[in-house]
Amino acid sequence: MTMAAIQDLTAEAAPEGPRERAPSRLGEAAFGFVYWVLIVGALAPGNWVNAVGMGATPHLAHEVLRVAAAGLLGSATAPIFFELSRRFPIAAPHRWRNGSIHLVAAGLAASILIIAGHVLALWFLEPAHKPSLAGWRDDLAANELLVFAGVMALSGLAHLRQSRLSAAPPLQPPRDPGLVPLKVIEIKEKGRSQMVSVAEIDWIEAQGNYVALHVGKRALLLRETLTRLESRLDPARFVRIHRRDIVALDRITGIESAANGDAMVHLKDKTALRVSRIYRQALKRGLAALP
Predict the structure, then answer these.
(1) Measured between alpha carbons, how far is 98 from 105 in angstroms, rounded to an integer?
(2) Mean pLDDT of the chain
(3) Alpha carbons 134 and 125: distance in angstroms, whole number
(4) Is the pLDDT of residue 157 over 50?
(5) Which of 181, 188, 239, 285 is buried most, with the most CB atoms less than 10 Å from its CB?
(6) What does the domain layout of the chain look like in residue ranges?
(7) DSSP H helices in the chain
């Protein structure tokens, strides 16, 4: 591994948060629901006044249903924009390209929300009317800009959250300075035990309550958490590259930068593994320290 390859590994890296957390899709959807309920609810009084001014008789139950439906529709889009903020951050060197992706996604999401809201409003509030192209066109013309602004604001909040997670350097698992790194690991299977030399391990993968020790073409399951096992490994030989993966540094043969700020490492056995941005600096330090 050359120093040029190591430097290329972090050329496009952006610092990230303390650890790569598994995103809570339910929490992101709940945030989207509350977000759109607040926005549409804030517009409801104005719609009510306009309806009365035009001689219509608005119904409170209908308005509540309309606001709730808007929240449910919006909650379906929120996890998408949180995921986009993670995969396509608006930061150098891909600021313009990633920004364009967010603009297109916001435009599509706004159009879908308006059309779906139009259909739901007619089916549940005015069942005597049927959705029509003319109605969709009118709704798009009247509300596209407003909903687009709301979607872009949601995207901005997703990026703000991601940037706050990116504010601190990655935390390393606690290590006992007096603890001797593992040399062998005992694998128990069907009442039998086998001893696996740590030096033979190519990479380690989290699989629920187990970790898979990849030794050549074999994958040996050990009932252990990845974080706990990491604290027992020699940090000069093993480094975490993803919330699910640990790799042996001397098995790495090449590194390939990815467009979204991540990277791929290629191992001697032809395995390719993704490197999350939050672990790229640790990987660089580990590779630089190899003899």
Answers:
(1) 11
(2) 74
(3) 18
(4) yes
(5) 239
(6) 19-165, 184-288
(7) 3-9, 25-53, 60-87, 95-124, 133-165, 226-230, 280-288
pLDDT, one tens digit per residue, over 134-154 is 654 655 565 667 777 877 888
The second-level CATH assignment, the architecture, of 184-288 is Beta Barrel (2.40)
Does residue 252 or residue 111 have the better pLDDT?
A: 252
From 93-97, 123-127, 220-224, 251-255, the region with the lowest mean pLDDT: 123-127
Residues in CB range of 70: below 8 A, 6 or more apart:
36, 37, 39, 40, 113, 117
Q: Is 156 exposed, middle or buried (0-12, 13-18, 19+ CB in 10 A)?
A: middle
Note the maximum CA span of the chain. 83
Q: Which residues of 219-248 are buried (b: 16+ CB within 10 A; e: fewer)?
A: ebebebebeebbbbbebebbbbbbebbbbb
Instruction: Quote the pTM value.
Output: 0.47
3-state secondary structure of 56: coil
Q: Which two tokens stand for residue 140?
A: 């798009």
Mean pLDDT of 88-115: 73
What's the pLDDT score for residue 268? 93
Indicate the residue type of 69: A
Report how far apart, in Å, the C-alpha atoms of 87 and of each of 21, 115, 220, 261, 277 are.
14, 27, 31, 8, 10
DSSP 152-208: HHHHHHHHHHHHHHTSSPPPPPP--TTPPPPSEEEEEETTEEEEEEGGG--EEEEET
Provide the token pair at 259: 């467009």
